[in-house]
Design goal:
By secondary structure, the protein is α/β, with parallel strands linked by helices. It is built from nine helices and twelve strands. Strands 7-6-5-8-9-11-10-12 form an eight-stranded mixed beta sheet, with helices on both faces. Strands 1-2-3-4 form a four-stranded antiparallel beta sheet, with helices on one face.
């Protein structure tokens, strides 16, 4: 689920060009009504919506362009996890329009990526209208996120990126310590876990997710809009976790210099924000909150 906020281009053109009239494309997928709305400001760029909720933005002419603020923040982490241009093994839980897989393929050629997207109809819809670069090493599996994660070999992934929404809510079974135990199993010792979280006042879900991840990883940082941190508005928060020290200073600088600036919290300030919230287990897990209708206006 995407919040508001426009971005700017990063990365390089992969040579793929959009074709056909720039008209809204509509289809029925497993998760509801899918729409691809053309970006009137960028030829070849589209926004994917499911039942009216924005899910992804993709620019076929420039996969290095990340429009949504939360996707730009994840893009920074894809850039920072390893030296520039070094290929990565990446697991994407949640497919959308494959925006982040396209970005990774452009920024880090020869990367090997697995996309896990339960909605087979959505996968087919995106493949038809927004085809992947045939040279990109991206495998797409239409299964549940935890089922797909369970098939990833131990220690294979440099990055596991969780961006999974059923409608506009993260499913409960992707918020628990048991889920994170399998994330850790799939990650290399130096790997990072990255998650797109959503919440609004009083930020109970976000506090619980920070506590849950902190129970499994040694280092955490979270980026969000200042108004989200203050509990004034529903929005996205990008969490990164690892068992090695994170480049927090550089991540903070990049997030603060974005067209829609955010704030990064880590360390003691993040622990204080969580406020003693207990980790979430499968038995007590609930989906993330339903966003208010105003989020999509």
């Amino acid at each position: 689920m995407a919040g508001k906020g426009k971005g700017r281009g990063r990365g390089k053109d992969d040579g793929q060009r959009a074709r056909g009239p720039a008209e809204t494309v509509v289809g029925q997928v497993d998760g509801g009504r899918a729409e691809l709305e053309p970006d009137r400001e960028r030829a070849g760029a589209w926004t994917l919506l499911i039942d009216g909720a924005p899910q992804s933005h993709v620019d076929l002419n420039d996969p290095g362009y990340l429009d949504f603020a939360y996707q730009r923040r994840i893009g920074h982490l894809i850039d920072l996890v390893a030296p520039a241009r070094q290929p990565l093994n990446v697991v994407h839980l949640g497919g959308g329009a494959f925006t982040l897989a396209r970005y990774t393929a452009a920024a880090r050629p020869r990367s090997t990526q697995q996309v896990v997207e339960i909605d087979a109809g959505l996968v087919a819809f995106v493949r038809e209208h927004l085809p992947l670069d045939p040279q990109a090493r991206v495998r797409v599996r239409a299964v549940d996120a935890r089922a797909g994660l369970a098939k990833v070999p131990d220690g294979w992934a440099d990055l596991v990126i969780a961006d999974v929404f059923s409608g506009a809510r993260t499913p409960a079974h992707l918020t628990s310590t048991e889920f994170l135990d399998d994330v850790r199993r799939a990650l290399a010792p130096t790997g990072w876990y990255v998650a797109n979280l959503t919440d609004g006042p009083p930020l109970t879900h976000l506090r619980g997710q920070i506590a849950t991840v902190a129970s499994r990883f040694a280092y955490l940082a979270v980026a969000a809009d200042p108004v989200v941190w203050r509990g004034k508005r529903f929005g996205n928060a990008v969490l990164v976790a690892a068992d090695r020290e994170l480049p927090v200073a550089e991540f903070t600088r990049r997030v603060a210099s974005d067209p829609h600036p955010g704030r990064v919290e880590h360390g003691r300030a993040l622990a204080d924000f969580a406020g003693g919230a207990p980790p979430v287990a499968d038995a007590s897990a609930v989906p993330s909150p339903q966003p208010p209708p105003s989020v999509f206006r």
